[in-house]
Design a protein that fits this description.
Strand order of the largest sheet: 3-2-1-4-5-6
Helix content: 25-40%
Number of strands: 23
Radius of gyration: 23 Å
Shape: globular
CATH superfamily of the largest domain: Regulator of K+ conductance, C-terminal domain
CATH architecture of the largest domain: 2-Layer Sandwich
Number of domains: 3
Number of helices: 16
Structural class: alpha/beta
CATH class of the largest domain: Alpha Beta
CATH topology of the largest domain: Alpha-Beta Plaits
């Protein structure tokens, strides 16, 4: 696949690195030659120095026969114009643009072929705020990933001494929570992946990835660690785009305070947030944190544009008694440094964004891709098509599917006709009715069901299959496995 990436910054550079290892023809365009040289020193890609939206520069990059244009420069207008030129002059099939401003992104009718031809809009700030919101909704989780519009979730949790299942085998989880179905997709012990079986023992400090219906997540988390109390008090350090989006989402459900260093920005935030208390000052000011009762804070979120400021503020907040700290970190080198520190969760905007971009680059009918373990692993939601003659998965039990090494099917999401019932099904009440429903129709609405992947579960055409791959080098094998053909080879 021939892919042109506009912008060699953090997102563009991380994406180029990820895609270059998958036999893609990658060309990166940027106006700063130093960024391009740094990328070329690390990976085998083509580079073009120049203004990302100039037609001649795009021609040098090979836009005439490109399959995908991904515009992720730091300027929305350049990204939009590049997509317009790619469509109008070169008829590029797929155009993806990073749009940070809500003034643009909030107008759905703006991005269509008759106006500004952008096929997919990526907003890193929105993705990061969504990611953090899911972590807050599920106390105790290290990562929470949505599949099938949130009907099923893949959750990472650190097993702590004292958890009911710690020191026991996985097969006992059904005895502990008999009314909840779940599957452990992977276990990471001292950064080494372990493919789980029913006889696998859970040890303290293991990082466990499991799949379950959204409503069952808390029950499963409690098996691996002492249950965290529901969060109530939140302090957000940094009132930028991410901080403001998050405060708007949380303020009606939690007690939210925000610390913003810029007085002008703080005034803007105070006018545009309804219930959030906005404070002017430094998040590293010990006196300020103590005055705001940091010791009673459930979550301290450090979301400024400075990694160094985020790390220092988070470590101070933890020292002063904050129950949990979540820190935004852009530099990969810093992530390794904070793993053994007091910081509970380090958020990488690049990795969150990359997963969404990969969804539109992967071959096959891919619905979701989540990049995990700093890009080493992936969780994929892929739709099965065909029948027993044309598909290698449809009509087959999970135990009979030839999965690549290190791959696990965690669950499937299936559309069911009204009146269907299955004992192993976990329903989502909010999605069970009204999906794509004609308001004037008298027919019952179709429901969607989460079926946890047990060995005898048979995959049907149209199923959304959640696959966990511990080594992303095998992702292409997953794509080929789900491709429909006339016969098997």
């Amino acid at each position: 696949m021939k892919i042109i990436i506009l912008g060699a910054g953090r997102v563009g550079g991380t994406l180029a690195t990820s895609l270059s290892s998958e036999a893609n023809d990658i060309t990166v365009v940027d106006s700063e030659e130093s960024r391009l040289r740094a990328l070329q020193d690390r990976i085998d890609i083509g580079v073009v120095s120049g203004h990302a939206s100039y037609p001649e520069v795009l021609l040098q990059a090979g836009i005439e026969d490109a399959d995908i244009l991904i515009a992720v420069t730091g300027i929305d207008e350049i990204n939009m114009l590049a997509c317009q030129i790619a469509h109008s002059l070169f008829r590029t099939p797929t155009k993806i643009a990073r749009i940070r401003s809500t003034e643009y992104a909030s107008h759905d009718g703006l991005f269509r072929n008759e106006a500004i031809p952008v096929d997919v809009i990526i907003s890193p700030e929105q993705l990061v705020s969504d990611h953090i919101s899911r972590l807050i909704d599920q106390p105790g989780a290290l990562q929470v990933l949505d599949f099938a519009d949130g009907l099923a979730q893949l959750v990472a949790v650190k097993a702590y001494y004292g958890g009911p299942l710690v020191g026991q085998q996985l097969r006992y989880i059904r005895k502990h929570i008999p009314n909840v179905d779940t599957r452990v997709a992977a276990i990471y012990r001292k950064n080494r992946a372990i493919m789980p079986t029913g006889n696998s023992n859970i040890e303290a400090d293991d990082e466990v990835f499991f799949v379950a219906a959204k409503d069952d997540i808390r029950a499963v988390v409690s098996e691996f660690r002492r249950a965290d109390r529901p969060y109530k008090r939140i302090i957000i350090a940094g009132g930028g785009n991410i901080g403001m989006r998050l405060a708007k989402r949380l303020e009606s459900h939690y007690s939210v305070k925000m610390i913003e260093y810029s007085k002008k920005r703080a005034e803007y935030l105070a006018k545009n947030l309804q219930q959030t208390i906005v404070l002017t000052g430094s998040a590293s000011d010990q006196e300020l944190l103590l005055e705001e009762n940091i010791e009673d804070t459930d979550i301290f979120l450090s979301l400024t544009n400075s990694d160094e400021a985020n790390i220092m503020a988070s470590m101070l907040a933890k020292k002063l008694g904050a129950h949990k700290v979540i820190t935004l970190i852009n530099k990969h080198a810093y992530v390794d440094l904070v793993q053994a520190s007091d910081i509970d969760i380090a958020i990488s905007p690049q990795q969150i964004t990359i997963g969404t971009l990969l969804t539109h680059v992967r071959r096959g009918d891919i619905v979701n891709v989540h990049s995990l373990r700093r890009g080493a692993a992936e969780a994929i939601e892929v739709i099965a098509h065909g029948d027993e003659k044309t598909s290698k998965v449809v009509g087959r039990a999970i135990e009979d599917i030839d999965l690549p090494e290190g791959a696990t099917i965690g669950a499937i999401i299936r559309d069911t006709e009204p009146g269907d019932h299955h004992d192993t099904i976990l329903r989502s009440p909010e999605l069970a009715f009204g999906m794509n429903r004609d308001e004037n129709s008298t027919e019952p609405a179709q429901s969607r069901e989460v079926l946890i992947a047990h060995d005898d579960l048979i995959i049907q055409s149209g199923d959304h299959v959640i696959v966990f791959v511990i080594d992303k080098r095998y992702t292409r094998d997953i794509e080929r496995l789900f491709q429909v053909g006339f016969t098997f080879f």
